[in-house]
Amino acid sequence: MSFFARFAQNRGALIGVIILAVIIAMAALAPFLYPESPWRMVQRPFLPPLEMDGFPLGTDTMGRNVAAGLMHGAWVSLLIGFVSTSVALLIGVPLGAVAGYYGGLIDDGLMRFTEFFQTIPNFALAIVLVAIMQPSVTSIVLAIALVSWPPVARLVRAEFLSLRHREYVEAARLVGQGNATIILRQILPNTLSPIIVLASLMVATAILLESALSFLGLGDPNVMSWGYMIGAARTVIRQAWWLSFFPGVAILLTVLALNLVGEGLDDALNPKLARERS
Amino acid sequence: MLYARLIASRLVKAVIVLFLIIIFNFVLIQLAPGDPAAILAGEAGATDEEFLNQLRERFGLDQPMYVQLWHYVSGIATLDFGFSYRQQMPVLDLILARLPATLLLTGTAFVLSLGLGILAGSLAAARVKKPSGSLIMALALLFYATPLFWVALMAVVLFSVYLEWLPAYGMLTVGAGHTGLALALDVGKHLILPATTLALFFMAIYTRMTRASMIEASQQDYVKTARAKGLSNGVIQRRHILRNALLPIITLAGLQAGQMVGGAILTETVFAWPGIGRLMFEALQQRDYNLLLGIFFFSAALVILFNIVTDLVYRLADPRIKEAP
């Protein structure tokens, strides 16, 4: 069976892909459907959903268009989710590869370092980092990456440990390939599938983290994000529950879709495991 | 004797980690843009030059880096976390006053999520190919993907605003003057919503872990033996599979519990629960960085303590593990 056929066998994964496509379309269409800044006050505040044309989700406490905020927020969530995961991979993959390939003291040292980061409570660390670096897209991406790389390092290390004495690696060594070449050309390509699966789940976690940070007021003050929308409407939850409701549904659907896609990728890339599990 | 040595080695490790966190905090203050004294003071202090000078002197900010580090580390080693000028109280007193509330909330949520998670996970494992099993897993996936703070807000809307069943804010009814049992009941009523919303996310994790662990255990030889002996399915599930599946769950649950402190920051913020999570939110809003770093240090210490406890429980529960770390 081909990769796509196996992926498509998982109905949840297909649903995930569809939801994700809708969210990406929202992000891509935002500048065309709502070219104005989502921060602009365009109508009277507290306009309920479906009451006025052009404001399907109403307006917030300041009279800003909720639908516009939701669409612009999609872009921010996806951007921060993907970029911070990439940065986390850039930290975790080399660390794990070096630790697993060389072993010994290097491995010990790097793993103690990884354990240290795993012990610190993730979310508290992210809060402290963003608060001290001042909230901006860059500081949020860095903070999320810094708290999410340890699982990557551990996974890559475990893969390298099990692969480094395989015959094809020994063969590469015999023909005189250097360590760097063996790591990058021989072993790393064989560890890609579990890394891809983990990465898709990490994007989901990163989006949750970003929303929680901006909910607490640690979002970039220049970009509209879903977490900010929920946080800003928190104090008026009794009068206008919908202001918090819709951005929350958007986060929920995005994270759910990414998790479903991750599971589908897992099934498609590790067909043997998938059969054992079901 | 084994346990004494084990605890000792764990404590040494904990001290090293905490020391590293202190250094980490120090580096953070140095890396932050602007004057370290202003950061320690928060924005309020920035206008008061005399106060800034006091801080510079106290932390030796005009001296070489290693002297500064020494001042910082020795301060925290003697449990001096500095003074919160925003709240007009020593940081340590502020944190200690809020700690019991957080322990009550996270403790309740931990027991709740682990109990319900193991129950739901074992039900799902026993019904692998049935719709009821799939339903449990779908719900687990849904809760796993739901932002904690959003569930908390929606719970307030539903159970406090519309149904008026449960209080939405605080830890006890202000001015009611309850004592004894009435006080416990009052706190319990306030605890239901925060503890349940905090537990949902972790329940989802424990459900998935339990199911995976049970399915793995069910493929072992001793299960075949039990079946061959003619034991009923229920007995096999409970006595043979679940018991063996529980051990890895305890370890993983201990690791996950650290994240519960992080989750508490969000739930306490939404429900105005007077714990260190809420205190962290207040420190954030007031840019009280010294308090923020103090809470960060304490939450890490809590996580380490929790990991040591689960480690010991694990070793007590599984007599096969004899070797020291």
Which helices and strands appear, and what pairs or packs with what?
The complex is a heterodimer of chains A (278) and B (325).
Chain A: H1 3-9, H2 11-33, H3 66-102, H4 104-119, H5 122-133, H6 137-148, H7 150-163, H8 167-174, H9 179-187, H10 192-215, H11 226-232, H12 242-269, H13 271-277
Helix pairs in contact in A: 1-12, 2-3, 2-12, 3-4, 3-6, 3-7, 3-10, 3-12, 4-7, 5-6, 6-10, 8-9, 10-11, 10-12, 11-12, 12-13
Chain B: H1 2-31, H2 36-45, H3 49-58, H4 65-77, E1 83-84, E2 89-90, H5 91-126, H6 131-145, H7 148-162, H8 180-217, H9 221-228, H10 233-271, H11 276-285, H12 289-317
Domain ABC transmembrane type-1 (chain B): 99-314
Main location (chain B): membrane
GO biological process, one term (chain B): transmembrane transport
Explain what this protein looks like in three dimensions.
The complex is a heterodimer of chains A (278) and B (325). Chain A contains 13 helices and no strands. Chain A is elongated and about 75 Å long. In chain A, α10 (192-215) packs antiparallel against α12 (242-269). Chain A is an all-alpha fold and 278 residues long. Chain A has helices spanning 3-9, 11-33, 66-102, 104-119, 122-133, 137-148, 150-163, 167-174, 179-187, 192-215, 226-232, 242-269, 271-277. Chain A has one domain (3-277): MetI-like fold. Helices cover 78% and strands 1% of the residues of chain B. In chain B, α5 packs antiparallel against α6 (131-145). The longest helix of chain B is centred in the C-terminal third of the chain and has 39 residues, at 233-271. The interface between A and B is large, with 42 and 52 residues.
